[in-house]
Design a protein that fits this description.
526 residues, alpha+beta, Gyrase A, domain 2, 10 strands, 8% strand, globular, protein-N(PI)-phosphohistidine-sugar phosphotransferase activity, kinase, PTS_EIIC_1, transmembrane, PTS_EIIC
């Protein structure tokens, strides 16, 4: 039962990360336009100002409607086949819910007064695509996406004969969804206020927990990386009301990231909201991981230092620049689990220190994101200088703790294995996109990398679905016992996580290229 629950959570996490993959681009764009529209730097009405306002409106159209995009993304991500049709049905379902909920609120005289979301603040209702509905935030999209995916997977193969044949497949899925969505549109008007009270209580707990709450948030966000469930820790705080909600200049913003972006765009806001404490989990990606990498290099056996440097340096640079830590983390997660525990504790501790020091920044990825988000906003408002100071201290602490533990307990970290294998081409740099073809055992001719990965996964007949997140190829399989971890590692993987009927292969920065190769070999076009 426990394994089944974990598997379902991983499937949901895999689907949810689909739309999340695009949000860093949206956030970076909004942060950049906030500089272009800041009257402290540019003249109001100038060409730069007008361009910034225009581009900002395009980007906020996405950020302000995350519920819709989560609905479509989750339905498409969780659908086992005909993903495009699942997405289309999810779109129709979303609008049917909005109309149904609005109509029921109107018929029962429950519709709140107000012409804007600012007017509706505190009423439990909001405007979504012009419909005044029960305010469920991104949870509406998540719930609808899961429902659509479930019904889609259950009935997408249903077919009828004769004149009724046109009502089969995805059309039958839509027919099945009609009463479900109708009941949901009515039910949430009575049930959601109680759920919202629970969410509010959770938010209140995090606020009252103070420094300990930040530590726990930071610790779990890192400690759960091997399971792939860490996305379920940070995403509610970053994009939903669990992370806070605020009216800024007459507009409602929900989630730590939207609140931060709205605040830095307004130079008159001198004190940023404490919800930014949920946005500092990138400290370890920029700083802490450098201490880990240095400890691995310094503790490696002398004869292996050159090889270790070749492997670790590109991974450390990747993490520093764009926040992709897993290629380096998977070098010790399973071989030295005590280090992973210490690593997570130190990261949570330094996030707590940043909160106590009054740091109000957005640092969820690497140094590039950090610079774009925080430097233009000013050191007085964000206290980013303190963050950098704490980050440099984290490097020293990580280095000292790892070096002590590795040498004290003779841990088999990179360069200290009894038998260090020769590096293959795919291991040389996680910054490289192209990986040379490699040879199968007993063959004289090289085979395509996509073919080699599929072969290591048990062949096309063993693969049910293929997805990816920021760094991992996530594959549902028929039989996980036939997966060849050794061959996967030779394709350039940094690590392999096996679960019942599911495998996650960590490729780091080149994951998009790897996913394309696998899709092409499997003839996946959607």
């Amino acid at each position: 039962m426990k394994e089944k629950v974990v598997t379902k959570l991983q499937q949901f996490s895999k689907a949810m990360i689909g739309p999340v993959l695009f949000l860093p681009i949206i956030g970076l764009g909004i942060a950049a336009t906030s500089v272009m529209t800041n009257t402290a730097f540019v003249t109001e009405g100038s060409v730069v100002y007008i361009a910034g306002k225009f581009v900002s409106s395009l980007l906020w159209a996405v950020m302000n409607n995350l519920s819709f995009f989560f609905c479509v993304g989750i339905a498409m991500g969780m659908a086992r086949k005909k993903k495009a049709e699942a997405a289309f049905v999810a779109t129709m379902t979303f609008f049917m819910f909005l109309s149904g909920n609005n109509t029921w609120l109107t018929l029962t005289n429950k519709l709140a007064d107000g012409l804007s979301n600012a007017d509706l603040y505190g009423t439990g209702q909001t405007f979504v695509f012009g419909f005044k509905v029960t305010d469920m935030g991104v949870f509406l999209g998540i719930i609808l996406g899961i429902i659509v995916a479930y019904i889609h997977n259950k009935y997408i193969d249903k077919e009828f004969e004769g004149a009724l044949s046109i009502y089969g497949n995805s059309k039958f899925v839509l027919i099945c969804l009609l009463p479900i969505i109708g009941a949901l549109a009515i039910g949430v008007t009575y049930v959601w206020p109680f759920i919202q009270n629970g969410i509010t209580a959770m938010t209140g707990f995090m606020n009252s927990a103070g420094a300990f709450g930040v530590f726990l948030y930071g610790f779990l966000n890192r400690f759960l990386v091997p399971t792939g469930l860490h996305h379920l820790i940070w995403s509610p705080f970053v994009f939903s009301s669990v992370g806070g909600q605020m009216v800024i200049n007459g507009d409602m913003y929900v989630g730590a990231k939207p609140i931060f972006l709205a605040e830095i765009a307004d130079p008159s806001i001198l004190t940023l909201d404490p919800s930014a404490r949920f946005l500092v989990y990138g400290m370890v990606k920029i700083f802490g991981i450098l201490g880990v990498a240095l400890a691995f290099y310094r503790t490696a056996y002398p004869k292996n230092k050159a090889k270790v440097k070749t492997t670790i340096l590109p991974s450390a640079i990747t993490s520093f620049l764009v926040g992709i830590t897993e290629p380096l983390e998977f070098m010790f997660i399973f071989t030295a689990p005590i280090l992973w525990l210490v690593y997570s504790v130190i990261d949570g501790f330094f996030q707590m220190l940043a909160y106590l020091a009054g740091v109000r920044i957005s640092a969820t990825n690497g140094i590039i994101d950090f610079i774009v988000y925080n430097i233009p906003a000013g050191a007085d408002r964000t206290k980013w200088i303190i963050f950098v100071g704490l980050g440099l201290l984290e490097i020293l602490v990580m280095y000292g703790a790892f070096k002590f533990l590795i040498t004290k307990f003779n841990m088999k970290t990179p360069g200290r294995e009894n038998d260090v294998p020769e590096l293959v081409d795919g291991d040389k740099a996680y910054l490289e996109v192209d990986t040379p073809d490699i040879k199968n055992e007993g063959d004289s001719a090289p085979i395509n990398l996509g073919q080699e990965i599929i072969y290591a996964l048990g062949g096309p007949q063993n693969i049910l679905s293929v997805e990816n997140c920021f760094t991992r190829l996530r594959v549902d399989v028929v039989d996980d016992s036939v997966i060849d971890e050794g061959k996967l590692m030779k394709t350039g993987a940094a690590g392999v996580v096996l679960k019942p009927n599911h495998v996650q292969v960590v490729y780091g920065m080149k994951i998009n290229s790897i996913r394309t190769l696998v899709d092409e070999e499997l003839n996946i076009s959607e």
